[in-house]
Amino acid sequence: MIVYLQRLGTYHLHKFVRYSHSQSTVIEDEISRFNRLSMVWWDEQGDMKPLHSMNGLRVKMISGGLVNSGRIKEKELKQPKPLTNIKLLDVGCGGGILSEALARLGAEVTGLDASEALITTAKHHASQDPHIRNEINYVCNTIEKYSEEKPKAYDVVVASEVVEHISEKKLFLESCVQTLKPGGSLFVTTLNKTYASHLAGIVLAEIIWKILPQNTHDWEKFITPQELESILESSGCKTVLVSGLFYNIFTNKWRWTQNTSISYALHAIKR
Amino acid sequence: MASLKTISFFKILFRNGRCPFLQIKRDCHSTTVQKKFYDIVIAGGGMVGTTLACKIGMLEKLSDKTVLLLEGSPEKEWIFENRYSNRVSAINPSTKNLMESIGVWKHITERRFKVVKKMQVWDAISDAMITFTSDEKFSDIAYIVENDLILASVTKQLKHLNNVSIQYGAKVKNCVLPQSGSSEQVSVELEDGTELKCSLLVGADGASSLVRKTMGVQYLSWNYHQMGIVATLRLSEPTDNVVAWQRFLPSGPIALLPLNDELSSLVWSTGTEEAKAILKLSDEEFVDTLNEALWKQYPSDNIVNSATKHFNSVLEFLTLTSNAVRQLQPSIVSVESKSRAAFPLGFGHSTKYVAPGVALIGDAAHRVHPLAGQGVNLGFGDVVALTNQLVDAVSEGNCVSNINYLLRYETLRQRHNVPTILVIDGLQKLYGTTITPLVVLRSLGLQLIHSVPPVKRAILNHASV
C-alpha cells in the first residue's frame, strides 16, 4: 500500500503555478495568487497530506541523528527548542513544510529552492506564524551556485524528497556536501531504484490505481542506497544510517521499516 | 482521501461526513492595529478549563507557549470554611494522577477529601445489587472532593506559572475561526471590546458553549426532565464512612457520597416537579422524604423475585457466587441548613470536538447524567488527551493548532467518551422504568456482572481512566 502521493501534490502544484501565472496579469493580484498557492501546499488534509504527515518522522530523524552524532545532547530533546544554534540548510524546500517545522524547533533554517513562486509562497506562509516570522531565511537559487557562496557554512543539510528529481546527482550531492561544515550531518530521503519501487510508484499508482498522473515518476532517476552512499563516500562523507520508510495511504501515516526497497532515509557525516 | 482515513465506528455513527451546518466565517478586514496574540486561548475557567491551562503551563515541551484563560465571572477569593460545599465531584484515579502531575493534589490533601473504598448500587424494586470494592488489584474507587476546592487548588498552582495569564470577568462575545487549510489565526472578541488573536482556541465553556455554536457542529442533546438535588447530610450515627451508595428508584437514582465520618453529600435525581417540591420542604420534612427514598420497600413483583432467585441458584451452581453481602445504607438525621440546591439534568454530545484552530473539552463537548459520577472525569480525560497531542505536535515541529493532532485527540476521546455516555444514558432509561420484563432483565444483568469478577473489573477500569 505504498504510494507516493506527494508526487500527486507536486503535479497539482506545477499545474497550479502555470495556471496562476497565466491568470496573474489579468485578474488576480500577487498576494491572493500566493495565498492560493499557499493553501495548496499547506492544507494538511489536502494534496500535500503525505508530505505533512512525513514531517514527524523527518524531524525525529534529524534530531535523533544529531543526538547520535553528538551534536546535541539527548536531554535537550525534552526542551521546546532542541535545535537551537544549529545552522541548517533545507535544499529543495518547496513551500517550506519541513523548514517551518525545523525552525519551530529552534534551528537557524535557510530554505533553498530554485522556484521563485515556491520561495514566495514559503515566505508568505512563514510570515503568518509569529514564532517563525523572522526565523527562516528563504533563498531562491540552485544548490550548485549557492554552495559556491556558502562553503562549509552549515551544521546540517537536508535534501528530503528531492534527489529523485535530479539528473546530475553527483554534482547535486557534492554541492550539498560543500555547504556542510566538517563533522556536519547530511540527511537525505528518497526513492530506491528497485522493481518494488517501480511496481508501487509507477505500475500501481500511475497505471492501475491511477492515483498519480502518468509520467509523474521517472524510474530512471531513482537511486539505490548503495549508489547514494558511494557518491557521498567520494564526496568525503561517511554514511552512518540507512533506514526504510513505509507510507500507508489509508491511515496517512509513515513509519520506519527495515525494508529499504521502496523509500528510504540516509544520514551521512562529513569527515 | 479523507474518506479512506480510518474512521472510528462511533464517528460513522454520529457524524455526518459533510456537515451542512458548518459555517466558517473568514476574517476579511485586515486591521492595522496589532492585536494581542496568544498561542492558546482557553474560553471558560471552570475546573476543566483551568486544569488545562495549568497542565499546558507546566509541560516543559510547551513552556514557550503563551496561554490565556478567560473566565466570565469576576475573581472570587476562595476562603476555606469548615462548612462543606454542596457541590462535590467523585474523581477517579486517573483524574487524581492528573492532579498529582500538576502538583495540585498536595493542595487538596492539605485541606480535605474522602477516599471511597466501596461502592454499593442497588435496585429499589428488586433484590439485585452490585458492589465494587477497592483491594490490592483495584486502586481506590474514587475520591470525593468539593468542586470549589479543586478549582481553588488548580488556580493556586496556576498563579506560579509565567506563561499562563488569567483574565476574569472576560466573556467571549464572538470568535472567527480560520477556513480549512488556511494558516490564519483565530480572532476572539470579548464583550468589553478587547480583540485577541490565537493559534488555538479551546472551548471549555460548558454545556451551552459559545465556541461550539461558532463551530456550527451538530449537537445531539435531550432533556431528562429531571433535576439533581444536592445537599450536605448528617448521618444518624458516625461510621467509618467510606462507601458511596446509590439506590435506583423508579423516579431516578439517589446517591450518598462520603465527606467525612459524619457527613455525606447527596445527589438525588428526580422529576423536575417533584424536585421543585422537595426544595420547598422544611429541613425536617426533607430529611423524612429522603430517608423514605433511601429505605422505602416497594411492592415486590413475584416474577422478578422468582427470576432473581432462580438466577442466583444458577450462579451458585456455576460457583459464581460473590462473597459480598449487602450492607445496610445509612439513615440521615439532618441536613445542613441552606445546603439544598437543584440543577437541571440533560444529555448532550457534540459530533465533532475539533475544527481548524479550535478544540472542545469537558461539558462543551459532552454532558451526561450524574448517575455514574463520570461527567467531570470525562472532562479531565479530555485535558490529558489534548495536552498529549499538543506535546506531540510541538515535538514534531508543528504549530499547536495542527489539525492532524487535533483530529487524533478527537478520535481518541470519542472512542472513550461515546460508549461511556451511551451506557450512562442507557442505565438512566433502563432504571427509569417499572415494566416487569425490563426489571427482570436489568436485575439479572446486574447479578451476572456482580458475580463475574473480570467483567466487574473491566467496568471499573473503564470508569477509572
Structure description:
The complex is a heterodimer of chains A (271) and B (465). Chain A has helices at 5-24, 30-42, 49-68, 97-104, 116-126, 143-149, 169-178, 195-208, 225-234; strands at 87-91, 108-113, 136-140, 154-160, 180-191, 237-248, 253-257, 263-270. With 271 residues, chain A is an alpha/beta fold. Chain A has one domain: Vaccinia Virus protein VP39 (Rossmann fold), CATH 3.40.50.150. Chain A has an eight-stranded mixed beta sheet with strand order 3-2-1-4-5-8-6-7. In chain A, helix 7 (169-178) links the parallel strand 4 and strand 5. The longest helix of chain A is centred in the first third of the chain and has 20 residues, at 5-24. Chain A is globular. With 465 residues, chain B is of the alpha+beta class. Chain B has one domain: FAD/NAD(P)-binding domain (3-Layer(bba) Sandwich), CATH 3.50.50.60. Chain B is built from 13 helices and 20 strands. Chain B has helices spanning 9-14, 47-58, 93-101, 105-110, 147-158, 210-215, 272-280, 283-295, 302-317, 375-395, 403-430, 436-451, 453-463; strands at 36-43, 67-71, 88-91, 114-116, 118-123, 129-133, 142-146, 164-168, 172-176, 186-190, 195-203, 219-235, 243-249, 252-258, 263-271, 332-335, 341-350, 354-355, 358-360, 366-367. In chain B, strands 5, 6, 12, 13, 14, 15, 16, 17 and 20 form a nine-stranded mixed beta sheet that branches. In chain B, strands 1, 2, 8, 9, 10, 11, 18 and 19 form an eight-stranded mixed beta sheet that branches. The radius of gyration of chain B is 23 Å and the shape is globular. The two termini of chain B are 33 Å apart. Chain B: It is found in: Mitochondrion inner membrane. Chain B: Belongs to the UbiH/COQ6 family.
